[in-house]
Each structure stands twice: as structure tokens, then as C-alpha cells.
Amino acid sequence: MGATRAFACIAALTALATLTACGHSPPTRYFSLDAVPPSAPLSTDAAHMAPVQLGAVRIPASLDRPEIVAQDAQYRLSIRENDHWGAPFAQMIRSTLAQDLLARLPPGSFVLPGAPAPPGARGIVVTVLDLRANAQGEMTFEGSWTLTAGENATAVMTQEVSLTEPMPSGDSAAIAAALSRVVGRLADRIAASLAAQR
């Protein structure tokens, strides 16, 4: 009987310790991206730009998750279990890029994602090949954007983009801030190319 009671006490203490540990788990933190101001005003020559609408933003499967992902070392990614994006990652990038483009393109020329587009509106598709916060304290972006036209969304122009932004630290807030700047610079590139192409 003594052994049975001792075993029961040990089991109860183990369960209590487990519950206590669970009660002290770090809370989940949520992060967002913010629109950033244009790096330069758009040329007045672009005032009569044909309407354009942001469509899909395609991201690698390794980033298509709620947790923030960072690169701790070569070939090794760190999934931050307690640091999450506030919305699906591709959706958040698209929403932020839309805000950035709205601030950079002439009034009436940008159609928000999902909104009814006027006849003849062109489309923008962004493809992210690689996007990471690396161990060297940098946010790097490799990808492209494509301008489409017509009912079949035929590609009329594709431009590759490579961007790097420094990060003051490797914490998740710094990652979100650096990524916001990267998305803003991508919007700068797109707006400038559209203004030149019209």
C-alpha cells in the first residue's frame, strides 16, 4: 500500500508540474507590416497612367505559415513558435504592397485587390523566390513582378528584383520593420517602371 501511495503522489506531482509549466508558457506575439512613404515623388508625366490592379503575391512554401521564420545559420531555418504574423503571410504582403502602391501611383490609376476593375485594367503579379532574415543582420528579397494585360492576363513585362535591408537586431519586431521597408522599395520599383512604361 505504501508503494502504491508513493507512486500516486509522484504521478500527482508530475501532473501538477506539467500544468504549472503550461501555465507559464510565453504568450504568442503578433506582428504586422506597415506601409512606408515613397522614396521619391512620382513624375508628373505619369498622371494619365492606365489603371492597374494588384493580383496574386506568391511566396515559397517554406514561408507560407503563421510563424515568423528566420535563418539562424546556413541551411538552417528557425521557426519562432511564439511570434506570429497577424494574418496569412502572402495576404499581409499583398495588403501592404497595395497600400504602398496606392501612395505612389497617380490618383485613380490603382485598383485595390479584389475590387471591380475597369475595362482595360492591367494586372500585377508578384512572385517571391526567396525572402529571409539572415544571420548577417539583413533582410533579403529575391523575386520578380509581372505586368499582365487582356482577358487572358498575358504577360507584357516581367522585371526581376533583388533587395537587401539592414536590421538593427534579429528580433521579430526588427524583421517586420525591415520587411516593411523591403515591400516599400518593391513598390518604388513597380511605380517607377509603370510610370516609364505607361
Automatic annotation (TrEMBL):
Gene3D superfamilies registered for this protein in UniProt: ABC-type transport auxiliary lipoprotein component
Domain ABC-type transport auxiliary lipoprotein component intervals: 31-191
Signal peptide: 1-17
Protein name: ABC-type transport auxiliary lipoprotein component domain-containing protein
InterPro entries referenced in this protein's UniProt entry, alphabetically: ABC_trans_aux
Any Pfam family matching the protein: ABC_trans_aux
The organism's place on the tree of life at top rank: Bacteria
Species per Swiss-Prot/TrEMBL record: Trinickia dinghuensis
Signal is among the record's keywords: yes
Keywords: Signal
